[in-house]
Amino acid sequence: MHRTDAIATLKSGIRLEYVVAAPDDTKSVKETLPLARAGLRVVAPSYRGAGNSSADAQTGHDKFTLARDIYELLTTTLALDSFVVLYRARHWLDGRNGVCPGTSLYRKSTTDPEMILGRTFHFALHQSRGLGEILTEGKEDVYLKHFYERLSYNPTFLSHADLAYYFSTFRRAGKMAAGFEVYRSFEQDHREMLEVVKKQGKLPTSLPVLSTGGQESSFTKPLGEAMKELAENVTATGGIPHAGHWIAEENPHVFVEEVLGFLKKQQMVQSPSQDKSTLPPS
């Protein structure tokens, strides 16, 4: 199910689409419903360029700016004072089961011939300004379908309705370009992340990080090690079975179970037998 609950206009003028699923929401999509039933208020935003969010700028797709957008949405528009960030991207070609700028794994992905010619061939294509747009114009469906299938465990993991939604979204003016801009900012992201860690240190122990991915993805194990370069308290798992790059779509039930298990262990949510009225907002 794909729906737009609201559009927030940020101070910058950027418009962000977001969907909210509450514990009593029976219309949530398959990934948010179990989280909502666990007592969480789930906010699913589309970052700038994705979904129905603004896609009219070549700047602002670096990850610190995207994070500030989401932070403003959560703290100003929705007035939340505490929340858990669960990062994954549904509307573009990137899931978090991949390389993270600011780590040695990211640099390897841009220098190792085995990765450049295989698993991360798209980095060069997506980062070459204008080339991706020229090659995919009028062929968005072909390119996206190839990309989704290539990085999946089960190539048929998306329904015809899902594919139709994504195809129609990316045919709209500026959408493919916005997606490519996310990749074009990676080198900036890498430099900025390294500088932040150098000056401020890693994320402290008080901010626990879950690193997971699909068991069939070659990125999952090295990603867990790479995240330790950015955070002090990292829990790396063996990964989600029967899933490749697109873990939340390929195996949503196990993915949600793993996330909830981590949150309960960190005492960020309560067990189902406890009073859900005491749960923190998310």
From TrEMBL:
SUPFAM superfamilies found in the cross-reference section: alpha/beta-Hydrolases
Lineage top rank: taxon: Eukaryota
Record flagged with keyword Hydrolase: yes
Keywords: Hydrolase
GO molecular function terms listed in the Swiss-Prot or TrEMBL record: hydrolase activity
Coiled coil: none
Family, similarity comment: Belongs to the AB hydrolase superfamily. Epoxide hydrolase family.
Descriptive protein name: AB hydrolase-1 domain-containing protein
